[in-house]
Amino acid sequence: MNLSREASVWAMIGVIVLLATMGDVLIAGAMREIGDFDVIRSHAGLKGAILAVLRNGRFFSGLLCMALSFFSLLFALSWADVSLVAPACAALTFVTDAFAAKWILKENVDRRRWIAAVCVCTGVFFLSR
Amino acid sequence: MTFRRYLILGAVMVGASVGDTFLSKGMKQVGPVSLHHLAGLLIALKNPWVLSGIVFLILFFASYLTALSWADLTFVLPATGFGYVIIALLSKFWLQETISPGRWFGIALITLGVGFVTRGPSYTNHNHHGSEEAVTVPANPGKPAKEDQSA
Q1: What is the 8-class DSSP label of residue A105?
Q2: Complex prediction ipTM
Q3: Where are the domains of chain B?
Q4: Which end of chain A is more exposed for a tag (fewer CB within 10 A), N or C?
């Protein structure tokens, strides 16, 4: 693989990871905004809980990002090695999600969660090769 | 964590992996779909494996959203990672594929990561009194909140 092609592949991986992270963060933010499903269901039933999700704009933005990430992955897989793109995207998304959750969603990402993110990221990399 | 919430996390783990495996098996039976003949995808919907795969993926997404309504993203994500372990085990025991020592190492690492995170608190409650300090509380609403500010 020559240098410019390798750079293109990593740029594509970067785009896929960015879109996947944006999707995860937007959907997690939307669900946080909507609140505990169990509580909503006890007040408004299953229909009310589904409507609460469908009325949330952030949820649809997250869904759009996830769809774009999926189609970018399909596009990347059509011209790059699946053995590189699939594990790299899956593993890197765990780490970028942890950073995004800490800085954007203000989650309490303590030492336990960092260790878990690194373990799962490394594990996915080994498993997908 | 209540038993019901563990069940939802279990559905997150199982839904995606079983759905992907069923879709893969179904699409192998259907054969390749050309970009010029996308109507072939409609024929794929008649395949029971593809249909079951879609049902499992819908189950995954519903459980994922439910889990995110009472748990942090960094709590739920390792559970989705455990789906890769289930796919590897399904491929070994159902599709009779071989798992290399490197993959067993990956399985062990993911299991360790999931075990780590599920033993900790599941949700961050934000303090809105002029600071962005995060306070983590356990998912079980029946028990008093335990403060943990080790972010």
Answers
A1: S
A2: 0.85
A3: 3-137
A4: N
The verdict on a CB contact (< 8 Å) between B73 and A35 is no
Q: Give the model's pLDDT for residue B35.
A: 65
Q: Give the pLDDT confidence score for residue B149 in this predicted structure.
A: 39
Strand partners, B136: B124
B103 in contact with chain A, both atoms CB, cutoff 8 A: yes
Task: Choose, out of B34, B58, B74, the residue to mutate when testing the contact with A (most A CBs < 10 Å).
Answer: B74
User: Is A28 within 8 Å of chain B by CB?
Assistant: yes
Question: Which residues have CB under 8 Å from B106's CB, separation 6+?
Answer: A122, A123, A124, A125, A126, A127, A128, B84, B88
Task: Give the minimum alpha-carbon distance from A119 to chain B in angstroms, rounded to a whole number.
Answer: 5
Whose structure tokens read 């092609």? Answer: A5
What is the structure's pLDDT at B5?
87
Tokens of A67: 């769809």
How far from each other are the two terminal CA atoms of chain A, in whole angstroms? Answer: 18
CA-based nearest distance A76→chain B, Å: 16
Q: Nearest 5°: CA angle at A32, between A29 and A34?
A: 110
Helix (H) or strand (E) holding B124: strand B123-126
Spans of all domains in chain A:
3-128
Q: How many CB atoms sit inside 10 A of residue A39's CB? A: 13
Q: Chain A within 8 Å of B36 (Cβ-Cβ)?
A: no
- Digits of tens for pLDDT over chain A (129 positions)? 577 878 888 899 999 999 999 999 999 999 999 988 888 888 888 888 889 999 999 999 999 999 999 888 888 877 777 778 888 888 889 889 989 999 999 988 888 888 888 898 899 888 876
Residues of chain B with pLDDT under 70: 34-35, 38, 126-151
Non-local (6+) Cβ contacts of A115 within 8 A are: B113, B116
